[in-house]
Amino acid sequence: MGVSEPLIQTSLLGEAIENGPAAVFVADENGKYVAVNQAACSLLGYTREELLGLHVSDVARYTEASDEWSEMRQAGTHLGTSTLTRKDETTVEFSYVAGATIVAGMPVFVSVGAAI
Questions:
Q1: Which residues pair with 96 in a beta bridge?
Q2: What residues make up the domain containing 89?
Q3: Distances from the Cα of 69 to the Cα of 9, 28, 47, 80, 93, angstroms
Q4: C-alpha–C-alpha distance, residues 116 and 101, integer Å
Q5: What is the dihedral of CA 110, 114, 115, 116, to 10 degrees?
Q6: Is 8 among the domain residues?
Q7: What distance in Å separates the CA atoms of residue 116 and residue 113, rounded to the nearest whole number?
Q8: pLDDT tens-place string over residues 92-114
C-alpha cells in the first residue's frame, strides 16, 4: 500500500515551511515560542533551542509590541511591521502577517514574514 496523498501533502508542506525563505514563528497564548523554522533562527541569530526558550516580548521589545500582541489576540489576525532584536542586540525590521489558529488541539499564534 502506498503513502496517502494527504500524508505526502503534510510532509511536503512541513519541509517547505522548515526550509523556505520566510521566517515562521509559532507562539502559545502566553507568547512563548513553541515552534520556529530555520529562517526565523537565521534572522534572529539564535539556535532553535534558544528561540524555543524565549517569548515574543524577548525579541519584540519596541513600545507598541504589547499593544499589537493584544490586538492580534482580540482580532485573531494582525498585519504589520515590527522591529525585532537579534541575539547580538542588533535590530531588524520585519514585515509579517500573524493570526490565531489551532495546531494539534492547541491554540497558537502563527507569524510569517521576512526582513525588510
A1: 80, 113
A2: 25-115
A3: 31, 12, 24, 11, 17
A4: 25
A5: -120
A6: no
A7: 9
A8: 999 999 999 998 899 999 999 99
What span, in angstroms and rounded, lies between the C-alpha atoms of 33 and 110?
10
4 domain-assigned: no
- Compute the distance between CA of residue 22 and CA of residue 116 in angstroms, rounded to an integer: 12
The three cell numbers locating residue 43: 534572522
Domain contains 11:
no
Identify whether 101 is part of a domain: yes
Query: What integer pLDDT is reported at residue 2 of this predicted model?
Result: 60
Whether 99 contacts 109, CB under 8 Å: yes
Give the residue among 31, 27, 102 at the shortest CA–CA distance from 66: 31
Separation between Cα atoms, residue 25 and residue 7, nearest integer Å: 23
> What is the model's pTM?
0.91
Which CATH number covers residue 59?
Answer: 3.30.450.20
How much is the average pLDDT of 42-47? Answer: 98
**Burial track 53-80 (b if 16+ CB lie within 10 A, e otherwise):** ebebebbbeeeebeebbeebeeeeebee
